[in-house]
Task: inverse folding
């Protein structure tokens, strides 16, 4: 049996950041695949960091836009602090652009930037305090899907 956190089976690593790692997980009842962001232990033991991480989940969970990854729940189990999010398949934009020869062509770039602008506009035009949500717009946080949807992951 694989390792579990609450009702989520941990499957594999999707990525590592400065403060958290992201795993692909499966809900044991529904079988749905999700992403689980787990705050590193050295941050999870800090009450201020725990508060910030929980607030991140709460605020992000209220955002509803096709280009912002959905946040489903916040989990605290033992020493683990986790955010359960929509799982997005695809490579980060940083890998896609890095793999192309020369700069990305305008015909590909413009539709992506329109989606990014729409997500930022949505987040900034919500009533306070939601409008204060800061989206992490690094290219590794942008994952175009096969259908050309560009969700922002953080």
Result:
């Amino acid at each position: 049996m694989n390792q579990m956190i609450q009702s989520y089976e941990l499957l594999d690593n999707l990525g590592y950041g400065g403060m958290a790692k992201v795993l692909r997980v499966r809900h044991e009842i529904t079988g749905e695949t999700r992403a689980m962001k787990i705050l590193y232990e050295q941050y999870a033991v800090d009450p201020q960091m725990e508060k910030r991480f929980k607030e991140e989940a709460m605020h992000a969970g209220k955002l509803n836009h096709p280009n912002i990854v959905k946040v489903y729940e916040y989990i605290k189990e033992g020493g683990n602090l986790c955010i359960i999010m929509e799982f997005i398949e695809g490579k980060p934009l940083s890998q896609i652009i890095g793999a192309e020869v020369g700069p990305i062509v305008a015909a590909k770039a413009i539709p992506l930037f329109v989606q990014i602008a729409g997500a930022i506009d949505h987040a900034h035009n919500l009533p306070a305090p939601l409008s204060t949500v800061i989206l992490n717009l690094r290219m590794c946080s942008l994952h175009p899907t096969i259908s050309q949807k560009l969700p922002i992951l953080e």
Summary: The chain has two domains: 4-86, 93-141. Residues 93-141 form one domain.
